[in-house]
Amino acid sequence: MDEEITIIDSNTRNEKIKNFFIKNKKKLISILVVLIVTLISFYSYQVYKNGHREWIASKYNSAVIEYENGDKSRITSLMKEIIEDRDKSYSPLALFFLIDNNLLESKETINQLFDILINKTNLEVEIKNLIIYKKALFNSNFAKENDLLEILNPIINSESVWKSHALYLLAEYFYSNNENQKAKEFFNQILTIPNGNRDIELESRKRLNRDFGE
Fold first, then answer.
1. Domain edges within the chain
2. Is the CB of residue 191 less than 8 Å from the CB of residue 172?
3. Residues 180-189: pLDDT tens digits?
4. Which phi-psi region, left, alpha or beta, contains residue 182 (left: φ > 0; alpha: ψ -120 to 50)?
5. Would you call 110 exposed, middle or buried from its count of C-beta atoms within 10 A (0-12, 13-18, 19+)?
6. 70 exposed, middle or buried (CB, 10 Å; 0-12, 13-18, 19+)?
7. CB–CB of 159/196 below 8 Å?
8. Which residues, 6 or more positions from 35, have their beta carbon under 8 angstroms from its beta carbon?
9. In angstroms, what CA-CA distances link 24 with 20, 21, 89?
10. Element (H or E) spanning 180, and its range?
11. Which of 74, 114, 116, 125 could be bridged to 135 by S-S, CB 3.0 to 4.6 A?
């Protein structure tokens, strides 16, 4: 008797499952198609992404090799294109290459390229902070106080590993402009950073002792 009940229950369950699939056949097929299309699209995107990155890497390496004997204007154009591609590895390298080799004269253009990296490129947090610091370093020779502070604020108001560097840059900026009180304040701020850069901390102590008698 128990066996018969078990068989009936099993048949009933199988019939319910069968009816469910028949009733929802179109919906289930649609879901399956969407999943397959999604997987294919994701795979295709990854293939495209990897291929595009290899193309950017080849483009960057070719420009670097060509630099010594090539057309500087063409190399500058290639590096700009790489920056505008917003690749998290090669776009920063391209900008640093342009700056290090003095291939750009326009300060405005350089700052615009910095902004592409900072605002439009998917970078790791500390890489982004490094580029912000580099932008501030580039601008420190001619920028006004408020402009320099605005550039560095994202680092100063964070726990970034570049915070000590940012504060030291500001301290040197104010010291070079004979604003000693402001310079002193930034040197002192460096000493209060938990786990700050030890070399910069030691240098700040030396500067405070030597230039401010502390």
1. 60-123, 143-214
2. no
3. 999 999 999 9
4. alpha
5. middle
6. middle
7. no
8. none
9. 6, 5, 48
10. helix 180-191
11. 114
- pLDDT tens sequence across 76-99: 999 999 999 999 999 999 999 999
Total Cβ atoms within 10 A of residue 77: 13
Q: What is the C-alpha to C-alpha distance for residues 197 and 160, in angstroms, rounded to an integer?
A: 11
C-alpha separations of 190 from 130, 131, 134, 181, 208 in Å: 17, 20, 19, 15, 11
Could you tell me if 113 and 95 are in contact, meaning their C-beta atoms sit under 8 angstroms apart? yes
- Whole-angstrom CA distances from 88 to 14, 18, 31, 201 are 54, 51, 35, 31
Q: In degrees to the nearest 10, what's the CA dihedral of 161, 167, 173, 175?
A: -140
CB 138 within 8 A of CB 114: yes
Q: What is the pTM of this model?
A: 0.75
Whole-number CA gyration radius for the chain: 30
Side chain identity at 162, as an amino acid letter? W
What angle, rounded to 10 degrees, do the helices at 163-176 and 145-156 form? 160
Q: Which two tokens stand for residue 15?
A: 């019939």
Residues listed for the chain: 214
